[in-house]
Amino acid sequence: MQYLHDYILKEGRVLSSQVLKVDSFLNHQVQPTLIQEIGREFANAFANSQVDKVITVEASGIHIAYATALALGVPFVYAKKKRAVTQSDDVFSAPVMSYTRNETVDITVSKSFIRPGERVLVIDDILANGNAVMGLLDILQSAEANVVALGVVIEKRFQDGRAKIQARNIPILSLASIESMENGRVVFTDSEESKMEFLTKE
Prior knowledge:
Blueprint: H1 2-11, E1 13-14, E2 20-21, H2 32-45, E3 53-57, H3 62-72, E4 76-79, E5 91-98, E6 103-110, E7 119-127, H4 131-142, E8 146-156, H5 161-166, E9 172-180, E10 185-188, E11 197-199
Parallel strand pairs: 3-4, 3-7, 7-8, 8-9
Antiparallel strand pairs: 1-2, 5-6, 9-10, 10-11
């Protein structure tokens, strides 16, 4: 997705060989036109997959899941990281370790929002170690829902998230797949054009 690649190259900041900062357009400040295009891209990819619902984890996946669900014409639900006082105890839950926050949280989804047999598309902003997605997959398994696929905006292919998810036989669509970020350079892997090395803006 060249439009997304351009944003990453122009606005992204490589902080280390493991960390890409995209908070100026994706997961803190958000560019609505980009998110709209991302939602359409996912919707087009899964238009014939009979998706009943889209699911993500708060907070960085919410706007992406919304745009995708809107384009597909289906509801979306997000797993909460903190139990609200209005939320009942009748929930599915799974522990998720956050490396960026160095803590484990229990994500929860009301049992009334995921039904057995529903075909659910999982959406997230970044796939790295895959912990958040694995938590969602555990919840969907508990709910006896059918996972259509995982769609992520950015994937760090040099980390082990993909291997964990593929071990569960879940298809993965990455709109921007990054092979490496050595020496401040982003190397894309998901198209012939993007295999070239690009230098992110200083």
